[in-house]
Amino acid sequence: MAITFRQLQVFVAVARERTLTAAAAALFLTKPAVSIALAELEKQCGRTLFDRHRNRLYLNDQGRRLLPMADELLARSEAIEQLFDNESLGGHLHIGASYTIGHQLLPTLLRDFRVESGHRDQRITIANSASICTALEAFELDVGMIEGRVAGERFHVLPWRRDRMLVAASRDHPLAALGPVAVERLAEYAWLLREPGSGTREQFMRFIAPRLPQWELSLEINSAEAIINAAAAGLGLTCLSALEARHALSDGRLVEIELDLDMTREFSLVLHRDKYRSPLIERFVEFCRQRDEAVDPP
């Protein structure tokens, strides 16, 4: 059985893109060339690697077994190509970050990493924590930076830094001028919340919802900035990161509602246990861990 490098490239691309057309575009190949390479690989393996459904391809159990090894071979090949280049680090780094980290911390962190390492070839995907974990599981990302909790033995989770959650409202809100407020009072007002799957929504459900006899959802929005604007417009209370809220608090659009409640959460670096960790990935993770609390948002 002579499996070729091109066949593995096609296999990994199809696993990530889930259609032959998208995989062909990613590899700058024709769709027939991708189809032939995948068919030859499955023939050589003696089994199908994907389930087909309405022109989309989904990894089956056999494909999931092959993916970590194929991904590692491609990564090691890339490292070999870069081995004798002048750059101290070679290869492409794909980082997935949840919204708060991606908007508030990653720009400064990435700037400093480029200065320190000389590496410039990065790609950033920003999504909610659940989506980042899904992409890591599919080997679409090299490292994840999330604000939610992670379940499952397939991930290696490294605690990174802490963040404070707070409750905020418009300056005209009835609770804005009251000073410290009992948590139970928050049940009297409607809430503006992020979508399920986001780390911010998870923290609301962890810290606040269990302490309320009931709560009303006013709006569900998948954007922190939109939630800030909605809260400033008087549409309800919101629970969000102090990092996300800092500008709106400083310019008076929002007011923090004082609570006798510690709402500290932890940001984490997440890697798939079966993914090959290239020198580039290891360098970036170590850089982040050294800069745990030293990253100042822009």
Q: Could you characterize the architecture of this molecule?
A:
With 298 residues, this protein is α/β, with parallel strands linked by helices. The protein is 42% helix and 22% strand. The protein has eleven helices and eleven strands. The strands form two sheets. Strands 3, 4, 5, 6, 7, 8, 9, 10 and 11 form a nine-stranded mixed β-sheet that branches. The protein has a two-stranded antiparallel sheet with strand order 1-2. Strand 7, helix 8 and strand 8 form a beta-alpha-beta unit. Helix 1 crosses helix 3. The chain is elongated. The model has no long low-confidence stretch (mean pLDDT 90).
Integer-rounded radius of gyration = 23 Å
Helix-residue proportion: 40-55%
Any low-confidence stretches, pLDDT <50, length ≥5?
Answer: none
Structural class: alpha/beta
- Biggest sheet features: 9 strands, mixed
**What gross morphology would you assign?**
elongated
Helix and strand succession? HHHEEHEHHEHEEEHEHEHEEH
User: Whole-number average pLDDT?
Assistant: 90
Q: Tally the helices: what do you get? A: 11
Number of strand segments: 11
Beta-strand portion reads 15-25%
**Terminal CA distance:** 54 Å
Oligomer: single chain
Pfam families: HTH_1, LysR_substrate
Family: Belongs to the LysR transcriptional regulatory family.
Domain HTH lysR-type: 3-60
Organism: Salinicola acroporae
